[in-house]
Design brief:
By secondary structure, this protein is mainly beta. The chain has 2 helices and 23 strands. The chain is 6% helix and 39% strand.
Length: 310
């Protein structure tokens, strides 16, 4: 289709309704002979510019590498208003606030109880209320690692956390968004599958679409840094929301694009320079991925009895 053919077509109500459930990957902006502005998409079509809202790539949340300065336990502020406190005798006095998704180094101490609230002591000396912060702690490695420094990933569904390990040493930590759980309704239960897996394939970008009972049809082009580990379940970047730290996906492990890129580059199978993906095999197995709840030992299988389309 030529751009001239789109005059009077791209702005129709039908196309606008479709775009509400779609994310398209844009190539360049162009103008028709009549002066109207259109975007040329990566898939070869044209969409009137006024029918789109573009997303910026800056300002994404990102987890942190664990080094001499940062180590587990780590706290991530989840409340839109997360207050800091100082101990004042038998009470806590507010001293300030930290922004949502701020990462705070915690002291290696158990929480203290003041009144009916628990508080975590930070490395900087202030306290955080436990219900306003996601606390991520170290997990013992699986017993069947093939080498003392083998890479593996822990996805904790209770904490919505993802931690990269090399043997017993955690090297990177972030929060994610896993599948929404509704065990009373199989058609709306997008719970992320639990168990022991390996990354099966990696893709720089791919299109993800479906037709969910809650959200209706959706299509997202160029989902970045995709790592499939079981069927259609994958770790991948999500540029369309910033709700990390809470369940909200259709089953995949949503991470911010910078986090997903870090894991993509760190995991196996290795993607050769200039290639857009790689598949694991017996000679080069993918990195281990363990998905579980707090009370669920690593490797225990669980999840929805029937996986909805996602």
């Amino acid at each position: 289709m030529r751009i001239e053919d789109l005059e009077g077509v791209a702005g129709t109500p039908l196309l606008r309704r479709i775009l509400r459930g779609m994310y398209v990957s844009l190539n360049r902006e162009a103008r028709s002979s009549g002066g109207s502005s259109f975007w040329h998409t990566q898939s070869g079509g044209y969409i009137r510019s006024s029918a789109l809202s573009t997303l910026r790539s800056d300002g994404f949340f990102q987890g942190i590498a664990l080094d001499g300065q940062h180590h587990l336990p780590i706290g991530v502020a989840l409340s839109t208003v997360t207050s800091t406190y100082q101990a004042n005798g038998r009470s806590m006095s507010p001293t300030g606030r930290v922004p949502r998704l701020a990462i705070i180094q915690l002291a290696d101490e158990p929480p203290v109880t003041v009144g009916n609230e628990q508080y975590y002591h930070t490395a900087e000396g202030f306290f955080l209320r436990s219900r306003q912060v996601r606390v991520i702690t170290r997990h013992e490695p699986p017993v069947d690692l093939s080498s003392p420094d083998e890479k593996w990933i822990e996805v904790n569904l209770d904490h919505q956390s993802v931690v990269a390990y090399e043997g017993a040493r955690p090297v990177y930590v972030t929060v994610a968004s896993t599948g929404r759980r509704n065990r009373s309704n199989p058609d709306e239960n997008y719970e992320t599958v639990q168990g022991a897996f390996r990354i099966l394939s990696k893709h720089v970008a791919t299109t993800m679409d479906g037709n969910s009972a809650n959200d209706g049809p959706y299509s997202i082009e160029d989902v970045p840094w995709v790592m499939y580990f079981e069927g259609s379940f994958a770790l991948h970047g999500a540029f369309w929301h910033n709700g990390f730290g809470a369940m909200r996906s259709h089953g995949c492990v949503n991470m911010s694009p910078p986090d997903a890129r870090w894991f993509y580059n760190w995991t196996e199978p290795h993607v050769a320079p200039g290639w857009n993906g790689a598949y694991a095999n017996a000679q080069r197995p993918g990195t281990r991925v363990y998905v579980h709840y707090d009370e669920q030992p690593l490797g225990t299988r669980g999840g929805p009895e029937r996986v909805p389309q996602h």
